[in-house]
Each structure stands twice: as structure tokens, then as C-alpha cells.
What does this fold into?
Amino acid sequence: GAVVSQHPSWVICKSGTSVKIECRSLDFQATTMFWYRQFPKQSLMLMATSNEGSKATYEQGVEKDKFLINHASLTLSTLTVTSAHPEDSSFYICSARESWTTDTQYFGPGTRLTVL
Amino acid sequence: AQKVTQAQTEISVVEKEDVTLDCVYETRDTTYYLFWYKQPPSGELVFLIRRNSFDEQNEISGRYSWNFQKSTSSFNFTITASQVVDSAVYFCALSEASRRSSYKLIFGSGTRLLVRP
It folds into this structure.
């Protein structure tokens, strides 16, 4: 199957700093990537849909100025958590939609963010 | 509105038992996709299967099988002869097959499966 990578796999930062998470589709081009957030023992919550070359579409209740998304190429999307606070600590997962054959979303391994 | 319900929060079985994970969905669209993903303790979601709304054939892949019934809006997943490595959280998901929706996935709440030796 298609492979999606995420970097870093985990990060610890101080409150008030910004953190950037990268999501890459390694062996296919992804016109659409998605960013999810998952709290312990809960399901995935979609934060935003990222289309290459255009602005991201955010879900209701997600602050676009706090969670900056950039999708500059067909294989890379980034999520920047600006001025992170302890309540932003979570597991962030990206997915990339493989659109030419199976139209399936493949997920990255996730990034665990801990804000002190 | 679209919705996916996985009523079983946790299931515990002994190794080699068969286990079925239930998934019921709601959608007003006639064209849609259904998915199952596995999330082991490592956290990464592993794609298991994708089924489109026009294909009601059941599928078998090794010890895994899926039963799709549009009449009851269900897409159940059965693991035969379960193994300890099957222990994970399993998510059922629904996606509209249209650009309008951006192909967003609607996830169920997940079923945590524990297979005991």
C-alpha cells in the first residue's frame, strides 16, 4: 500500500512556542491531505482538509490562526501549532488521499505533542 | 447527516476464538465508500479494506472477512481464529464519494479488541 510519513514522531515543547509537523506521501502524489487530532481512548477528530496549492478548509471549532496548514506540493503538507499550550497536547495524525486508483486515505504514523 | 456507529466499545476474547466487530452507518448519499482501519498500540492507522456502495459482495482476506449489507446499513468485520497480534482498536469509517465533500472520512468511535493468550 501507499506510504505516508510524519515527522517528528514525538515532540516536547514549552508553552508559548510553535511546533511544525510534516506529513509526506512517499510513493504517490496526494492532491488532498487531512489533519486529525486524537485524544486518549477517543476516535479521530478531523481538524482540516488541505488541498495542494490552495487554502486549507477547517472544521467547525478549529482555530485556523492557531493551527496553520500549508500544502505547498503534491507530497508535503505541514501543520504548525502556534503558541502551543498544554491543552494542545495530543496525538496528531495526517492522512493523504491517493486519488488515481483506489481513492483511499492512507495515514501517517502520528506525532505525539506534549506541551509543558 | 452522515454517521458511523460502533456500538461495541471493548471486546475481549481468548486466542483462536472468532470475533465480529459491528459497524452501522447512516448517509443520504447513494454513492459512498466504507472503510476499516486498525490502530495498534503504536498509534499508526493501518488500512484494511475499502468498499464502495455499489459492491455488496462479501470479501475474505486470510483470517479477515467483511459483510456489507445495504439493507441494514451495516459493514461488519469478522476475525477468524483470533491471535494476540490482532489486539488493537478498530475503526469503521464512511466517506462520501464526491468532490463536494472533499472525500472526508467520518469515523466511528472505535472498538478496542483484546485477544488474550
